[in-house]
Amino acid sequence: MLDRLFRLALLQLILFGISCARVDAMVALKRDFADLVARSEQIVVGTVVKVEVGESADGSPRTFVTLADLSVLKGSVGKELTLQFYGGQQGETSTSISDMPQFSEGDRVVLFVAGNGRAVCPLVGLWQGRFRVRFDAERNADVIDADDGRVVVGRSQRDLHFARTGDASAKPVTVDEFRQMVTDELAHPSRPEATQP
């Protein structure tokens, strides 16, 4: 009887410990280029002009990221687009989720947007739905890097190709070339189910 009570108490402690566990990150399925394009409600190239912390309509903390100087590749938006990301810092209270993309004023980005105002993160595949734009002196043009800094150098049937680490001869994809990749994928989806909602 004592052994049974001990086991029951141990099980309760384990279950209590599991229920109190802290979640440190979100899990995102790998999204290839075709998925990013198909799942996006909007695809935009823009510049971050404002980052503010506030609350959503339900009172949860949100970081509002406003983009301007927009070029819309899919969907429709106004002159500016404000995205809502869960979390933010208000006074001494900080609410954050690991792996949530962070933005700074002046960032130039390409974003694959879905669920803005409804989802915890309005980017398809979390960080996978953000590409950074930077000027490349050798190409004398703005080029595209993945969110993690990998240089985009091309595309296969469904996905992007990235330069190998340290490959100085890699020719980065320009914003105009990336725009054409999106246009081509929208016109001729490489994912058969992409034409369905």
Write up what this structure looks like.
It is a single chain. Helix content is 19%, strand content 34%. With 197 residues, it is of the alpha+beta class. A hairpin with a 2-residue loop joins β4 and β5. The radius of gyration is 21 Å and the shape is globular. The N and C termini lie far apart (58 Å).
Structure described in brief:
The protein is of the alpha+beta class and 197 residues long. It is built from 3 helices and 10 strands; from the N terminus they run H-H-E-E-E-E-E-E-E-E-E-E-H.
Layout: helices, strands, pairs:
Elements (H helix, E strand, L loop, with lengths): L1 H18 L13 H7 L2 E14 L5 E14 L6 E6 L1 E3 L2 E3 L12 E6 L16 E7 L4 E6 L5 E4 L4 E3 L12 H13 L10
Antiparallel strand pairs: 1-2, 1-6, 2-3, 4-5, 6-7, 7-8, 9-10
- Main β sheet profile: 6 strands, antiparallel
Order of helices and strands: HHEEEEEEEEEEH
| Whole-angstrom Rg | 21 Å
**Distinct helical segment count:** 3
Rounded average pLDDT: 85
Task: For the largest sheet, list the strands in their spatial order.
Answer: 3-2-1-6-7-8
The poorly predicted ranges are 5-23
